[in-house]
Amino acid sequence: QIQLVESGGGLVQPGGSLRLSCAASGFNFRGYYMDWYRQAPGKERELVAGITSDGVTGNYVDSVKGRFTISRDNDKNTVYLQMNSLKPEETAVYYCHVYTGARGDYWGQGTQVTVSS
User: Fold this and answer.
1) Are 7 and 21 in contact (CB under 8 A)?
2) Helix, coil or strand: residue 63
3) Can you say whether residue 103 is alpha, beta or left, with left for phi > 0 and alpha for psi between -120 and 50 degrees?
4) What would the pLDDT profile of 75-115 be if each residue is shown by its tens digit?
């Protein structure tokens, strides 16, 4: 079955960096666009970044442009989110996501990112 497993979250000070990873299995990873979303307490889940199947093009929400970088390793079936200059308001659970078409949407369990001094 399709599985997405995030890791790399934690507590970081404002201005700090974290690198999230999402290990995928159960589908042809290299054939699909992959996304990262986040959900802060009391807020709706929002799209943060996405990357094309070939890893060439990353797309970002305006608020993270220039600070976050999405990448992928199709040989390792893994997508990454490098987050720099983190802000307290970016405290959230970060989720990996894939839309597979006929098989539908799949989400990871999420990884908590807390930005606090």
Assistant:
1) yes
2) helix
3) alpha
4) 999 999 999 999 999 999 999 999 998 889 999 999 999 99
